[in-house]
Design brief:
383 residues, alpha/beta, seven-stranded mixed beta sheet, 9 helices, 18 strands
């Protein structure tokens, strides 16, 4: 068995997502399992280089996990020929320039979304990577979660018949920051810093809908700022200039209609923070991050509308749990493994920068739809 060290520049690991999901639960988890076995006698050993602006925070993380390599100099790290891959989980406003530098330096690129602040920038990155010949991937984690993997199994098996509609509910109450610290950083609520729930979540909805049900062909959205004032990390009040809720209707190729509500100003009355209900001619399903329940056409009860008497049925009890039938790894780690196999074993991989650009496109058109108060077609994009 040959061990190949893979040096990965990880930019943005001081943030919540970059640290928890990408560093700890993906890269360090791969090291804990002894590396990634490619099946040809080679084991990939990821060696992270922690990259960012706050050296003291990077060194604290490195010390906590016994890591050696820390830098605040992006250009120097990208100039190092021993660095194979550049990963980006910075704030959105800093991402496009850094990824362009990495591509120019000949590094393979793996990045969080959105890949840029606008479609022109996102498409530009995809074209740069294509022309340079580097491999590239965009994190599309939700389709690797157990609940949506079960949902995909149902779609692929024809469980639904003709799919009619998809209803999604996502969100939770993010504390304003005055009497309880907010669970999300303050830049998320400033449009000038790249914040907003449309920019954050519509790229997710694009790939979830595209992968499971069909390409989005039109969008009609209403984005709003329900909480106009919040308090930052220093306890100072600031004006929330970015949308904190968005209500979208998406037409899909094939005729299905999707409706997805996204909000950081909603209190949760669901089993999970995100749930999708899919209704088809032959059956329905409700999927969250981990669980999935179904009701088949042949087992659908006969509801009767009578508002004059209390409901006598427990509607949730009329659904059946979909069994795991498999072991599900962390979704972020699973996609990291696929990307590493793509880079070093040329395994197929289609969650690339062009796929990321589709997400940016949908967010851009969603905001335009909200501003103009109309439905907008979503054209196909290509290199």
């Amino acid at each position: 068995m040959t061990r190949k060290t893979v040096r990965i520049a990880m930019n943005g690991v001081t943030g919540r997502m970059g640290y928890r999901q990408h560093l700890v639960r993906s890269i360090l988890a791969l090291r804990d399992q002894g590396g990634l076995d490619l099946g040809d006698g080679t084991v990939l050993w990821p060696e992270p280089i922690l990259l960012g602006r706050r050296e003291h925070a990077l060194r604290e993380i490195a010390g906590r996990h016994g890591l050696e390599h820390v830098s605040t100099d992006l250009d120097a790290v990208l100039a190092d020929p021993s660095v194979d891959i550049y990963f980006d989980s910075q704030v959105t406003s800093a991402r496009e320039e850094a990824i362009a530098k990495a591509i120019a330096a000949g590094k393979h690129v793996y990045t969080e979304k959105p890949t840029a602040t606008g479609l022109d920038g996102a498409l530009g990155l995809a074209r740069l990577a294509h022309d340079k010949g580097v491999k590239h991937g965009v994190v599309q984690d939700k389709i690797f979660l157990p609940g949506l993997l079960k949902l995909k199994r149902l779609v692929d098996g024809g469980f639904f018949g003709r799919i009619l509609s998809v209803r999604g509910e996502f969100g939770y109450w993010v504390f304003e920051g005055d009497w309880q610290p907010a669970q999300r950083p303050s830049w998320n609520y400033r449009a000038q810093d790249g914040g907003g729930i449309v920019v954050d979540m519509f790229p997710h909805w694009e790939y979830v809908l595209h992968e499971l049900f069909g390409r989005v062909t039109s969008v009609q959205a209403l984005a709003t700022t329900h909480i106009p004032q919040r308090w930052d990390e220093q306890g100072k009040p600031y004006d929330a200039t970015a949308d904190d809720a968005a209500y979208g209707i998406f037409e899909l190729e094939g005729g299905a209609i999707a409706q997805i509500n996204s909000s950081w100003a909603v209190r949760v009355h669901r089993d999970e923070l995100v749930e999708f209900q899919v209704d088809g001619t032959e059956g329905s399903a409700v999927a969250g991050l981990r669980g999935c329940r179904v009701q088949h056409r042949g087992a659908t009860p006969k509801p009767v509308w009578n508002p004059d008497i209390p409901a006598t049925e427990v509607f949730r009890d009329q659904w059946q749990e979909v069994p795991d039938n498999a072991e599900f790894d962390n979704g972020f780690k699973a996609q990291w493994e696929l990307f590493l196999r793509h880079v070093y074993a040329d395994a197929p991989y289609h969650w690339d920068l062009l796929a990321g650009a589709r997400g940016v496109q949908l967010a851009e058109l969603g905001l335009r739809s909200s501003a103009e108060g109309r439905r907008i077609d979503v054209p196909e994009i290509s290199l």
